[in-house]
Write a structure and sequence with these properties.
The complex is a heterodimer of chains A (89) and B (257). Chain A is built from three helices and no strands. Chain A has 89 residues and is mainly alpha-helical. In chain A, helix 1 runs antiparallel to helix 2. Chain A is flat. By secondary structure, chain B is mostly helical. In chain B, a hairpin with a 5-residue loop joins strand 1 and strand 2. The chains are: A mainly alpha (89), B mainly alpha (257).
């Protein structure tokens, strides 16, 4: 399990990533590209919290079956939603 | 493929369950996307069921049941923690579905207000940092009690509670009234209704988390936790971090993009 220094270091990294998201929003560039970058940073933050604060990294690997199954379900729903959009939308 | 079981009998493995699952997935996807795909899915389901009955489904299920009992994949987890994770899976599906619905509605709309026109980015960022800090306080509380430090546990839990309450005060006491004064309400259109439903549901979860942390604080002050007996701190901590994770997606979706 991580120590106090590591927990605080991760928190600092998450705060910096949050500021980076806000800064990215104000950058000049294609809106869809900036949105993708922001969502990638958000996903990185979420994974970091799950791995280090929820200790998934230190648990038995088989525990990951549960959250991964749920995430696959959500991704499947997202793919179905995207595919069901008509081109004119 | 064959597998030997403890009682000495031999059982043939089957690919029929995988075929059946693929058929159901294809069928459901076809209903949403493209009907001929659903027909193909139905054919695959039929083929899988035929394979089941041809191979003797009754015997196979009997073997499977026995095998599952012997090989439960999450036996290393205690029941409390397993329960929390199963609950979190359901929460992922609830929030995931709502976020996908929000994205669908937003991408389908011809016009959507710019986030900076309707939302206060500074307040959103402040709330994100507050929630992150509250997660840090919670994980440090767990770290403390694992090391037998009861004082550290109390400080951690009280900090997590205070930060969570601050999040709610900013959200419900400052942000929402400000948006309502500006005419951005739950009934002002899809941008408003999606925002208030999703952040409202999240706020309810923060509130439930506060009640749970309040319980932990009470237990910690009455000597309820030791270095070897603290599973409630760990399990409620898992939920608290999950609420934090959800906000990591709501913040950019509503305030930045």
């Amino acid at each position: 399990m991580p120590g106090i220094k590591m927990y605080v270091g991760i928190w600092l990294g998450l705060v910096v990533a949050t500021v980076a998201e806000v800064v990215t929003r104000s950058l000049a560039g294609a809106a869809s590209l900036l949105a993708l970058i922001i969502l990638l940073i958000s996903s990185g933050k979420a994974i970091t919290i799950a791995m280090y604060y929820q200790h998934l990294r230190y648990e038995d690997k088989r525990l990951a079956i549960l959250p991964i199954a749920a995430v696959i379900g959500v991704i499947t729903l997202a793919v179905a939603a995207i595919l069901s959009m008509s081109p004119g939308m | 493929m064959t597998e030997d079981y403890e009682h000495g009998e031999e059982c043939k493995s089957s690919y029929a369950p995988i075929l059946l699952a693929a058929g159901v997935a294809l069928f459901l996807l076809g209903i949403v996307v493209f009907l001929p795909l659903a027909v193909a899915g139905a054919v695959v389901i039929g083929a899988a069921l035929y394979k089941f009955f041809k191979d003797g489904a009754e015997e196979k299920f009997a073997e499977l049941k026995e095998s599952l009992e012997e090989k439960w994949p999450l036996e290393f987890l205690n029941k409390e923690k397993l329960g929390v994770w199963v609950f979190l899976v359901s929460e992922i599906l609830i929030f995931g579905s709502l976020i996908v619905a929000y994205a669908y509605v937003r991408l389908s709309s011809s016009a959507w207000p710019v986030a900076t026109q309707t939302h206060d980015v500074i307040l959103g960022m402040a709330n994100t940092i507050i929630l992150l800090t509250s997660s840090l306080a919670m994980v440090l509380a767990l770290y403390s009690i694992r090391a037998g430090n009861a004082k550290g546990l109390k400080i951690g839990l009280l900090s997590a509670f205070a930060l969570g309450a601050t999040f709610l005060i900013i959200k419900l006491g400052v942000e929402w009234p400000m948006y309502y004064r500006n005419g951005f309400t739950i009934s002002s259109g899809l941008p408003g209704s999606t925002y208030f439903v999703l952040t409202g549901l999240h706020a309810v979860h923060v509130g439930a988390g506060l009640a749970a942390v309040g319980y932990l604080i009470f237990r910690s002050f009455t000597g309820g936790f030791t270095s070897t007996k603290h599973s409630a701190v760990e399990n409620i901590g898992l939920y608290w971090h999950f609420v934090d994770i959800v906000w990591m997606f709501l913040f950019p979706l509503f305030y930045l993009i």
